[in-house]
Amino acid sequence: MPPRVDPLDRRVVLAHLPTPLEPMRRLAAHLDMDEDALWVKRDDATGLAGGGNKARKLEYLCEDATVHGCDTLVTGGGPQSNHVRMTAAAANKLGLHCTIVLSSDPPSTPSGNVVLDELLAPEIVWVGRLDYYAVESAIDHTARRLIDEGRRPYAMPIGGASVTGAMGYVRGAQEIVRQQPDVDLVVTADGSGGTHAGLAAGLGSHDRVLGVDVGARPDLDTYVPEKATETARLAGLPEPTGDVRVDHEHFGKGYGAPTDAGREALDLAARLEGLILDPVYTGKAMAGLIAARRDGRIERDTKVVFLHTGGMPALFASAYAEWVKTTPPSSS
Ligand SMILES: *Cc1c(COP(=O)(O)O)cnc(C)c1O
Q: What is the DSSP string of 168-203?
């Protein structure tokens, strides 16, 4: 019998791992927390054309694509999708073709992630503004077109949100526990929910993960526990215990729409820690963390790890330039 391969080892190496875990002492003091209670896991520093959480998922997704003999990575998302940008980078590094579906009309001047997409040069299909599920259909439709053209596409859902992709955060959770064995709570942005599912599977507990809904999909409360269970099974781990925790109070007017609480979070992180957050994901996640501290869900001595999932290129998108410039600095 061939030796059994640990499912967590079925990956290609794309990310700079382990990423650092750094204390945020000044932000902790500002939030009236113990000085060793608040940490940031620097998954914005995973490398791969600017970094972010998708690098960990892509290690497993690209391995799966290769094992299945695929020659083209296909995925999609909003025009400022970080997953799309990093998928194009992974394809180039591995010598695969790449087709991406962007739910926008082509911009007259590229900005933010689109600048990087243009440089990485995948085939880009601009489909106009579509909702989450219509983008998923457009990805499938594009994969079928590629088959007709004689390609062997590997289609990934928005955000790489499959059980295979979530394996990246089982590994990520294990990395966090190795660096901070006392961690009580990991706070993350929830876009597609795949990162949250992987973390819960890796920690073996829903109670130890707080996801902050950024308004990308409406079904996180059912999606996350379902995928966490499936991911744990694939990783050979027990099903996570406890109740899933998703904060739906911080997405404001919806996905990509900046909020005042998010702006306060960006300002605090930048001014107290020299840490740059983004308006779409990490700013809203940090706003959720701050609110949980202020209303007592996070206590003074709760050991909290904020997962920095990346996203900085979106700050350079023209859509946010005016917001960064004109929103008055928060008073706190
Ligand atoms: C995709 C993304 C997320 C959300 O991750 P999901 O696994 O889709 O929930 C969070 N932050 C950034 C910067 C992202 O690009």
A: HHHHHHHHHHHH-TT--EEEEEESSSHHHHHHHHHH
